[in-house]
Each structure stands twice: as structure tokens, then as C-alpha cells.
Amino acid sequence: MRSWINHDAAAQQLDVLLFDAFSAHCLANTVEPLRAANTFAGRQVYAWRFLTLDGGPAVSSSGMEVRAHGRLADCSGDLLIAMPSYDFLRHATVATARALKSAALRYKALAGFDTGAWLLAQAGLLEARRATIHWEELGRFTEAFPDVQAERARQVWDGNRITCTGALAAFDTMMELIGDQHGAALRLEVATLFMAPEATETQDPILVRGKSVARAVAVMQANLETPLPIAAVARKAGRSQKDLEARMKAELGATPQAVYRRLRLIHARKLVLETVLSVSEIALRCGYDDPSALTRAFKAEFGTTPRALRSSN
């Protein structure tokens, strides 16, 4: 757990500092998980704003214009994410450095996504810190900022400083933030929505954090109606039950049993909201022989019953 992260009921304020030629892909991968987290949590657990140094609009590398919510100098919050992307050297000015130094006093944590680490380092905000940057710039970054402990990693968390390498790493970083603040259940639900590697089976060695966990979750997803014993899930994932339990606990912060139950209940909620199936039929499709058992588990997980949720929607 990161000490700067707010773990109570209040929404966390995240601001993205945009510069011309920012990556729209990186921006989407940063804010869409937050939007999904709010939806699945049933309340606003995250708020976000798009900022610029002067309060004017920023134009992405693909020509998409984003209207800023305000000037950086006028804002404060929990986390500020600098996102210069492609034209970062043009934005590495004295004015930018001054603005980021000032922002460091108003935000609990600062992050540099894509090439954002360069701007943070230039402002002296990464001295004696571990950090990463888009790998195309890693060599030049290491030479320019010898006081920064540059690492060839997808994302680096060092106290209240976060850096990551690009759009895909930005998604991973936001997933980790969601998991840290709100637990593995919400993180897994968001991952499932976006078909993230931790919720689907994939062989891509770059994207997968843990192939065994990804395979195990995929096995669970494929066997919601007739749940398998965890030992069988582990065998299909190529691991012993004890090993899978340790890996899943480390990567998702929950036991295989808890993850499996959550996946079944996520599916149940989807059927409640998107079909006219009876609660009894939904229970059977989600591995519950007794609709009462589903209702109890559903209420414990989501704070409402299937019937009440359907009525309210």
C-alpha cells in the first residue's frame, strides 16, 4: 500500500497535465479505468481533470483537441500526471519546471507517463529516485539525469513518484492504483471489462504480469456455471494449488476462491441488469444451486439484492 493514497470513502482527485502532441491512447488508458471503477463501485471513487499550464486546450499527436478544465497553478489534488508524450523536449522549459515544482507542494503524488519522467526529472523532482521513461528515450534520459536511478521497467513506483513507459503501461499503472485503493475485487472487475491480460488468457510475454494467474482466471471465466475445484483450476493453469494461491494472492491481492466468487457474482450482476432471466435461472448460470445463496452472496458483495438492483435500474 502507498501511504499517499486515500483509502477512505472520499473520491481521489487525479489531474492530467497535458501538452501539445500528447498521446490520446495514453490519456484514454489513464482515465477510462477510472470511469469504469466509478461505474462498478456505484459511486464516485475517482474524479479527474485535464489541465494545461495556461488553461488553454491541448492538441494530441493525432489532432484531437482536449479542452482543459483549468490551469495547473489553480489546482491541487491527490495525484498529478504529467503527459507530454511525443514533443516532450519542446515542453522541457524553465516555466514547466517551475510549474511542476510548485505543483509538488499541492499534490500528494506526482507521476510522469510516457515521456513525462523527463519533465519531472528536469524539475528536480526525481533526484535519488527510481524512475522509468519510454524505452526509446531511456539511454538519453540516463545520460541527462545521472542523479535519477533509471530502470528499464514498464512502471516504477518510488514513494509518491510514479513513472511509466507508455499507453499500455499507463493502463497497468491505473489498474495497480485501483487495486491499492479499492482492492483486488474492483481491480479485477475493471480488468474484465477491458479484457486485460490478468482477466483473460494470453500468451503475450510483454503484456502478461503472470501467465499462470492469467490462465487461471481464464479457466474460471470459462467455468462459471459449473465451478471447478481450485485444485482443478490450478492443474489447468499448470501450477499446484499452493503455488497458484501464492501467485494470485501476490498479483491480485486475493485468494483463488475469492477471485472465483467475484467473477461469478460479476456475471450474475450482468445478467440481472441485461436480461429478464429469473433470479433462480441466474443463480444456476453462475454456479449457485440455491437462489437464496446467490442473493446472500450478491448482497454481501454489492450491498443490494438482485431484485432490488433490477428494480432500481
From TrEMBL:
InterPro entries: AraC_XylS_family_regulators, Class_I_gatase-like, Homeodomain-like_sf, HTH_AraC, HTH_AraC-typ_CS. GO terms for molecular function: DNA-binding transcription factor activity; sequence-specific DNA binding. Keywords: DNA-binding, Transcription, Transcription regulation. This is AraC family transcriptional regulator. Pfam families: HTH_18. The keyword Secreted does not apply. Residues 214-312 form the HTH araC/xylS-type domain. PANTHER family: HTH-TYPE TRANSCRIPTIONAL ACTIVATOR RHAS, HTH-TYPE TRANSCRIPTIONAL ACTIVATOR RHAS-RELATED. CDD domains: GATase1_AraC_ArgR_like. It comes from the Bacteria. The keyword Transmembrane helix does not apply.
